[in-house]
């Protein structure tokens, strides 16, 4: 059974274009995953990265979910390009974090 480590919460303020220019992100992790829970912005969401050792690398799967009680004010299909851009940025940040941990 995997148990989450203590959660850490960050307040994020973005200066560029973003759906959530400000939000509070709580990050939790287990042996094989990292999860972001965003609240306080225009769109609440959960973002989960699952990490799987493939023997010659790591497979990273990303899942975005929106809590049922979230009022998006926008059709979800309009959020798709925004989510794709955010996924790419998040993946880049995750790779940087993992590489720094491996190098340490």
Write up this protein.
The chain has 104 residues and is of the alpha+beta class. The chain has one helix at 76-103, and strands at residues 8-13, 22-30, 33-39, 45-53, 58-65. A 5-stranded antiparallel sheet has the order 1-2-3-4-5, with no helix packed on it. It is globular and about 45 Å long.
Can you summarize this structure?
By secondary structure, the protein is α+β, with helices and mostly antiparallel strands.
Could you state the order of secondary-structure elements as H and E? EEEEEH
Q: What is Rg?
A: 15 Å
Q: Give the beta-strand count.
A: 5
- Uncertain runs with pLDDT below 50, 5 residues or more? none
Terminal Cα separation, in Å? 27 Å
The level of helicity is 25-40%
Shape: globular
Q: So how many helices? A: 1
Please describe the biggest sheet, giving its number of strands, its sense, and whether it closes into a barrel: 5 strands, antiparallel
Work out the strand percent: 35-45%
User: Could you tell me the mean pLDDT?
Assistant: 82
Query: Based on helices, strands and strand pairing, what is the structural class?
Result: alpha+beta
How are the strands of the largest sheet arranged?
1-2-3-4-5
